[in-house]
Amino acid sequence: MTSEQSAPQRLLFLFADAEATNPKKSKKHQRGTISPVMCVDKLPSELSSFDALVKEADSIAKQWNFVFVASLSGDNGIAPTTEEAEPFLNKMANDIETGNGVGRYVIFDRDENPIQLESHG
Prior knowledge:
Helices cover 23% and strands 29% of the residues. The chain is of the alpha+beta class. The chain is globular and about 50 Å long.
């Protein structure tokens, strides 16, 4: 995980609401829309568990079912700040809204199951 990275990391999380447009189809091949709900950045040391992250997110907004995860590397042994993470969080939100580049993120559902998305323009 991030503790094995040579440069200090800041983890970026974007919580999103996915709505199926064909809910009766197989869950494996559903189509739908994904809307960003909220973003947060954390140092790895601030993250105790996935369950704790879910509880914290739910205390702010419960209307999400996917979390997109990325990491941002620091320089000279210093992790990026929240201010330095903000443009990357904005890019994540834009990527999710447009469906472009979603393959660059690790995505989990609320139960920490990995999710694979395909973008269809």
